[in-house]
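ERR on first pass: missing label on line 2. Operator R.T. fixed the label and resubmitted. Corrected input:
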Amino acid sequence: MNAMNGLTQLHFSDLWHVMAPEMILVIGGFLILVLDLFMSKESSRRLSPQLGILFLIAAFVLTIRNFGIVADNAAAGGDMINLSNMLYVLDDFGNVFKLLFTAGTAVVLLMSIDFFKHNLEVKVAEYTYLMLFATVGAMVMASALDLITLFVGLELLSISSYVLVAMRRNHAKSTEGAMKYLVIGSVASAMALYGMSFLYGVTGQTNLAMGASTMLQLWDQFKPVLVLGFLLMLVGFGVKVALVPFHQWAPDTYEGAGNPVTSFLAVVSKAAGFALILRVFLWGFSRVFGDIYIYLVILAALTMVIGNVAALTQKNIKRLLAYSSVAQAGYLLIPLATLGKGSSIDNIWLSLGQTVFYLVAYLFMTMGAFAVLTVVTRQAGNETLEAFRGLWRRSPFLAVSMAVFTLSMAGMPLTAGFVGKFYIFLGTINTEMYWLGGLLFATSAIAFYYYFGVLKAIFLKDSSVETHEKIQVPASIGVTIAIGLIGTIVLGVYPDAMMKLLNGLHWFGQ
Amino acid sequence: MVQNAWLIPLFPLVAYLLLFVLGRRAQEGIVTGISVLAALAGFIVSLLILSDVNANGAQAPYVFHWLTVGQHSLSMGYEVTPLNAMMLTVVTFISTLVLLFSKGYMHGDERYSVFYQYLNLFIFSMLGLVISPNLLQVYMFWELVGLCSFLLVGFWYFKPEAAAAAKKAFIVTRIGDVGLFIGIVLIYVATGTFEYSGVFEAFQAKKFAIDWITPDHLITLIGILVFIGAIGKSAQFPLHTWLPDAMEGPTPVSALIHAATMVAAGVYLVARAFPIFEASPDTLTVIGIIGGITAIFAALIGLTQNDIKRVVAYSTVSQLGYMVMALGVSAYTASTFHLMTHAFFKALLFLASGSVIHAIHHNQDLRKMGGLWKKLPLTGWTFLVGALALSGIPPFAGFWSKDEILLGAYNSGHYVLFTLALIAAFCTAFYIFRVFFMTFTGEFRGEKDVYDHAHESGPVMAIPLVLLSIMAIVVGFLNSPLMNNAFEHFLFKGGEEIGNVYEANWGMAGLATLVALLGIGLAYLMYKKQSIKPENLANGALRPLYQLSLNKFYVDELYHYVIVKPVVWIGHILNFIDKWIVDGIVHLFGEGTLIGSLGLKYSQNGQVQTYGLVTLVGAVLLIGFAMYAVGGVK
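pass 2 clean. output:
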């Protein structure tokens, strides 16, 4: 094998061994694409999402299988399972994120079934296979170790997402959102690629595993160039996960996209962005973290403060959730930033655990909130806070669910959101970055204010509401909400099982 | 059966949630039905558990892992010991009756359903506290109990006295809670665990992770801090002042607070965590003295009060003093036994007083009662049973348990405490029969109209009274030589004996009975035969003493001038600083935040060019800062 070449002959069995979930989704996507040509329009509309969910479940199961493979390999003391000289790897870091992506996308498709019924202009088969391809892109972002492959994954996710946002063709806001996302997203991609080129220029490697040691040797000599490369990548990735000040596309795009697509962007796409950030920065920069963590701290602080403050005056509920999702990105950046004060291997595992725990909690509460939002705003005919007024009388189930989700986002004890935030907070205490932990708490306090606005609208008696019509909840939406509720409360009341699971992972294959 | 103990607190919790969902407009019958059924189900499960424990003894707690943070791990769970099996049974039994009784008492109240919600939550909290296997969980439920009592005492919040009483109850018990909290934190720091078993082991081994204090002193310090919590909750001197005021709540609440929940929590905690206190003789002495003082102090105040509920309230304080004193002299069995018997006859006395108050249009002033025996025969009989039990006349329940406490105090050599307790017993018998004679005998001293309309209030109020009367008569036999001290054998089933146990002493029993009879006799002479005029005593030679007792030894006034007033003054000063300085800063932040938010809104102008520009400027600033920092740009 020629290490410099990086390309070796691959057999199908090797591929299947390492990337079975990705492959099954690609197969599924193409199958839906082909079937659509042969089926009647009605049956395609009906079957495509169901097929999509089926393939996602298959990918989910195959990912679970992969945990076993990684554990066996680690027990046997083998090297990291990889393809083509560490171009693509199989480890629990990737596996955890793949579970998150497949589960998240499956729930999005479940919500979409109802979305299709009310948006007849959306082409269901296209929508479905684009979702699957976007998920594959996300998976690549979590599992590749080569900058070029990572970038391809990023683009696969991004381009699919641009189209998904634009799917409601008769909707001016949808087109507008997609266009803005495309323009800013392209700027981001360009910056990230530019940053990567600096890394390649200095180390002569696109592979993170190979390049990291070279970079460590050359760090002092080429510090400005390498930091520049790091920052450009950070900006590029920062746009994807909507860090302030690279977040401005988010509210417009979130507002324009259909609710399931918005929740996909908020959960799956954002989680993929964090997978990419963690993968690149942990593999490439973990030993020089002391020099670069300050930029992460600055962005985390800015994002928490501005995301939460901007949410205060929002009247549109989707924009409110968009800003809240911006703020969450700030919280999520903290575990990585704390590594600057000590990037021992234990701290890295702890940070990964914190990030993933919060992402899982975030998945449940955000999916649930968007599902509630879908039904409520449709009935009210608008997307403002007014739509939630007196919800308690119209549908106690939706009201209580929404209360649980918003309280969880705000960080109320006994919900998943609290445990997640608390876990991250402990990380800041652990590394003695007290003021960052303090800021986390202070901005959460601001968050309580606007979430209470939602709660107030839901529960307060108000005679000005004309409609007391009961709200009917479609089955697929009801199931989504139930999943969100169960997840939010179980993780909030009994987080230990999940933390134990995370602590037992072989994050990077060892 | 023991593994199902978690069901017991679950029932009232479910009832609470159901009522909450049904809302305040739910029908009274349904509300009561749900609540009583839930409490009854809890009672039945408690009985099953009681028989299981009786057969198999104490079992290991059921603990599940809750949260691991770094090296610290917290767990939650439940446990069943003979002591808490007894408590569960008593609490659920009395709760069932109180819930039933409230149907009559609260009938027609606008917030009927809310009242039941609070009651259910209250019962849930108390049951949760009782089955907690660790101190952290105890503390959570402890606070919840406090919160519920606040809500219930202030239930009629539109009455200023009720609102003030609720506030007082909350604040005064909070003082105790601070002690408890510090105590628990110290325990955790010193032993690394919250679990009773682990803490007890550490206390026995005297191995602690704290080195700034010797182990013996630490044990005393922790014991006293935890005991301060019990002082607040169980209304011991000097934090007893909230309990009599808490009478402002509806009477069923008083019955619950005084008999089964709230105040019992303090004594229960000291009993459950007894090894912590037992490890330090100094702590025990403090506990004994505080208990003794409370017992005599409250009994003296009870002599002169004119509000029927207040007298009963001071009798609770006094009886709690007995229990605490008993623990202080290591008469563990006597104390827990008195906790149980007292629960029954005190609930009985309260519900009977409630029945009286209800019958004469919510009047509580003894001076406007009298001659009600003919009108309220059932209430009269049951009150008499309660009064006899409280006075300690054989064979009623209070006789057996109080006798054991006196015996424990005497045999442990604390003769001063013994004497105090004996005098308190005399006062107890006197004041409760003073109430009895003033209420049920003689002429009615209120308006004639009210008297004519007075009548018994139907089965929902009568059944609890009768059931409690039966219990107040029979429950004392459980630990009598006649039943071979069954309670004591039950209490130590499957575990070690705790504290001292003494053989029954008939001489002591005779002495206690004699003292009680003297008290009753004096009350009879003064308030029935009127051969000694009470007014003559009050205005004659004993006037200063009378005033002292009537005004509750001026403790409230003392607190008002020594603590409340200065604090209020400090408050005024702080308020000034707060209003003009802190508020200004806060306003600055608040306004600033809002203005900032608006500003952000305008920068979000919908132009994608702006977004691109902001992104770029952000990137450039970041890179510029970085280049300056790493020295790339000179």
